[in-house]
Amino acid sequence: METIKFNDYKNSILGCWWGKYAGGVMGLPFECHRGVREITWYTQENLSGIYNDDVDLQLVFLRACEKYGNKVDSQILAEFWLNYISMSCSEYGAAKANLRAGIAPPMSGSYANDNKDSCGAFIRSELWACLCAGNPDIAVRYALEDAMVDHGEEGVFGEVFFAAMQAEAFVEKDINKLIEKGLSYIPDDCGITRGVRCAIECYESGKTWQEARKAILQTVPGSFGMMCGYLDGDSIEEDIPVGKHGYDAPSNVALSIMSLLYGQYDLLKTLCIATGCMEDADCTAGSAAATLGIILGYDKLPQEVLAPLEDKITVGSLRDDGDLYKPATIAELTERILRLTPTFLGGAIVDTLYAGEGYTIEAHVKGNDLLRVYAIDQYKAPDFKALLARIPYTARYRNMLYDVFVEYEKVPVISVGESLKLTFKFWNGFYDRQWLECKWHLVEGVEIDGGAFSSICLEQKHGEYNIAEKEYTLRLTSANSSRVELCLEIVSTGRYYKTYIPVTINVK
Is 444 helix (H, G, I), strand (E, B) or coil? Predict the structure, then answer.
């Protein structure tokens, strides 16, 4: 088993965030434009304190991790989202509207969200990669929890892909192997995979990066660059289609990977290629440069590229109520991640501290309890691709005694006279058998098949016998408002506290 030494770990984290910053700054003037540019350097006159919105949400989630450790999940992240994220455009706004309507993750990311396949999630992978260095199996599960708050399908796949790549980059330095590692966690036939495979084929066949850009935009057409269109003087590329609105993650992830391949481990070259492709340039350049920063480490990044930048984190879409404690610099951000890692990963992965030497991290740890995210089988984590396929209509609630998975037949938006089937799956967290007493708190206008009261035997934690299932069908017979709030109360016999599972039905 490989280990990551403390100083190497710190060096790669610093490289990650400096790369992220440099990419965000260089790419910003070309964001939302279509065309191609031969970029050689930053185009802004003043590089001090430039706002990078690709970091904002990660600072919020850092605070969530500091408060809740490795227990963070989509529900916790969603609450932090509503409390601290002021931005309400595109997928961010759709998710906030869904959450306020009682539509829980992952449905909050998929339902009524034209931008569910866009770029807002893959730009948030770095935090999970840094906290789960050398352990992509763990990183992708936190990336999933993050992405599904405001994205679905391709948007989720993009963050999972980058989280796996970047976590692995702490121990593996070959870009081609890292790309394959990232692809191993997402569907073979999804847009992200097709776009990335196109980038690889172009590179291996000797095409120029300009030709590769065009091939990618033809293979997985997006529309991000058409928000502002072509710059004055540029000719419209008639052979590049305008893709479906919001379907932008596949092309932009592929452009980012293309810049890594053609950049050949050169930070400036990688930045310039990603920026020169425009589209979501600050995101593509930032993700590529962050990955390269982990691979090379801060000490091996060209300091002349970083020197014009100020070590100052500027945010623009966050609400600060005094409890967010935003890091002011990349150095502070790195230090806070270093302090958090032992408690986040736990003693099974991070060893004890040695005076003056820091700690080491075990890489490629399997079977750790952190893998319990959306897992039902006690002894093995589910195949990640199968896990991705089953989440769109599943919500999960956890406590010390058991996990509850609520599988919705469909998004809970129905008309009067329609029904909604819910399947509750209970997973015993202890070796003691439990009896669960379930009681529905119904409201006028809702009927239920499956019993308002029921007792469920939850077997002890042994093999797959620790799983119980109960199915209910809710019928909406009348409605006096646009939202119907229900609740399932659960008590484990002999225990002093209760669990309340909220169910919100939106009336169409």
Answer: coil
Strand 229-230, strand 33-34: pairing = parallel
Ranges of the chain with pLDDT below 70: 321, 353-355, 367-384, 386-387, 390-391, 461-465
Strands 413-414 and 498-507: parallel
Half-sphere exposure of 357 (CA within 13 A, CB side): 10
Classified as helix, coil or strand, 34 is strand
pLDDT (tens digit per residue) in 159-179: 999 999 999 999 999 999 999
Cβ-based neighbour number of residue 494 at 10 Å: 8
pLDDT value for 379: 32
Tell me which residue has tokens 């093995």.
Answer: 380
Cα 231 off chain centre by: 32
- Tell me if the bond preceding 106 is cis, omega within 30° of 0: yes
Q: Which of 375, 392, 396, 383 is nearest to 466 (CA)?
A: 375
pLDDT of residue 377: 39
Half-sphere exposure of 11 (CA within 13 A, CB side): 15
Q: Which residue, among 411, 415, 425, has the nearest Cα to 472 in the 3D structure? A: 425
Structural domains of the chain in order of their starting residue, each with its CATH number: 61-266+322-340 (no CATH), 393-507 (2.60.40.10)
